[in-house]
Amino acid sequence: MDDLDRSNHVQPSKIGHYILGETLGFGTFGKVKTAKHQLTGHKVAVKILNRNKIKNLDVVGKIRREIQNLKLFRHPHIIKLFQVISTPNDIFMIMEYVSGGELFDYIVKNGRLGEDEARRFFQQIVSGVDYCHRHMVVHRDLKPENLLLDDNLNVKIADFGLSNMMMDGEFLRTSCGSPNYASPEIISGRLYAGPEIDIWSCGVILYALLCGTLPFDDEHVPTLFRKIRSGIFPIPDYLNESVVSLLNHMLQVDPIKRATVKDIIQHEWFAKDLPAYLFPSAAPVATKTDPLGATVTLAIDYDIIGEVCDKFGVNEQDVHDAVMAGDPHDQLNIAYHLIIDNKRIEEEASKLDNSELLMASSPPPHGLSPSDSPFPAQQDPTAAGATTTSPTAASSMATRLPRHRLHSDAGSYNPQSAQLLQQKQQDKQNQQNQSPVPNKTNNVSQQAAGASQPVKRAKWHLGIRSQSKPADIMNEVFRAMKALSFEWKIVSPYQVRVRRLNQVTQEYTKLCLQLYQVDCRSYLLDFKSEAKNTMEFFEMCAALIINLAR
Description:
Elements: H1 2-8, E1 14-15, E2 18-26, E3 30-37, E4 43-50, H2 51-56, H3 60-72, E5 81-86, E6 90-96, H4 103-110, H5 115-134, E7 137-138, E8 147-149, E9 155-157, E10 164-165, H6 184-187, H7 195-211, H8 221-230, E11 235-236, H9 241-250, H10 261-266, H11 268-271, E12 287-289, E13 295-297, H12 302-312, H13 316-325, H14 331-351, H15 355-360, E14 413-414, H16 415-434, H17 444-452, E15 464-466, H18 470-483, E16 487-492, E17 495-501, E18 508-517, E19 523-529, H19 534-549
Antiparallel strand pairs: 1-2, 2-3, 3-4, 4-6, 5-6, 7-10, 8-9, 11-14, 12-13, 15-19, 16-17, 17-18, 18-19
Helix pairs in contact: 5-7, 7-9, 9-16, 12-14
Catalytic activity: L-seryl-[protein] + ATP = O-phospho-L-seryl-[protein] + ADP + H(+); L-threonyl-[protein] + ATP = O-phospho-L-threonyl-[protein] + ADP + H(+)
Protein name: non-specific serine/threonine protein kinase
Keywords: ATP-binding, Kinase, Nucleotide-binding, Phosphoprotein, Serine/threonine-protein kinase, Transferase
């Protein structure tokens, strides 16, 4: 009997210092389980990824991106990655455990939310999205299914598998995310910078919070895409004009006219009861001027440099040099400023005496050393054959927010009212563009003076502007480059990589030309440096500009 009892007694599974518990759910690449740290008793979630499935589905790059982004992020409303444990068969991602479920299920259960509750959720979401964008990461798959809730109903942004690093001057083209939350440029396969598609998704989420339904929905995908491209959605009578104006600004079909995070933060509806910790002000930095007139930053936090050293396994001088160089894409510099931001957020939060926030905070993360990486250093995600996803195929990525599963109070819908309000808002913006509006912080007398004598503000012009046809502009560019003996490679009809051989050093100076549409009539030719020597880049630009002007 004792032998039988021993044979039936199953030892609990263990990975590292974590004892695995119940299964929370299943995903494409494996399962998610609860676990408890053997020493501290802290409860975590463990995402188990099967290596064979990752390899067969060509998603090495997707998993790598999620790990790289999450291991750097430290924000109260972004899910935390504590540790990555690799075995020959599986990858174990030790993550923050949140027990409140998905925001999707919360909406299904409660129906449309009151304005105050919806605003609180939305403020936390935008704070997390802004944090991502400021650190050059765009999520690309924001939806209620990827927004988790903790015990105190605080939002945690999760699933960064489709996220991507934003590079200055570059555009993205991959069709990502779920169709109902995808922006018009995504479903049309057009180029996009990145932040604007997250803003659109946030607009759809805000609508779902307030209405319990989706602004654009149809079982027939082509019809759904047609609705999204039109930008016309029903507006219930119970929504006040302030939040409707915010929705209209965020759900603009034209990404140039779409709201930015700054626009959202400054909107009166969003700013109401906004907690200070969500958007902490920038910390002052001490500077000095050296004999050559250059400004040198003095405020280096060596405690944080020490943390970065521990995480990346490098010495202090490497981190110090990276911070002083200020390269926005250097991983050491990024990590330093991420920790700075996290420290500032915690300090701001502590001033609020917000007990709920403190209860929702997670324990400090365990650092990831280079040896913790689940992938070999020489492995390239692009070599794994990671494929792009078509808009139609994207519908299978996640369940949509179906109308029959969501409850909303009876209310009359007016599809035309959205269009009228958009036109009203556009007319208001045009009036504002024609006459400068004084800052709201100025007093009445200053406003009156500003209205009587509008101040003409100087405008910055970047690159070369033209009102010619795009094809004619590119023909002139090719003519000028040929006359200057430049060599080039056509990346797309309106993007060219150019190089010129320096006869003295026998090295190439490189730049990238990109033609942008500024408005309905004008275009801008932008110059992006890919050269080591800045002066050689300027000389190359000057030669091209002079030749184009002839």
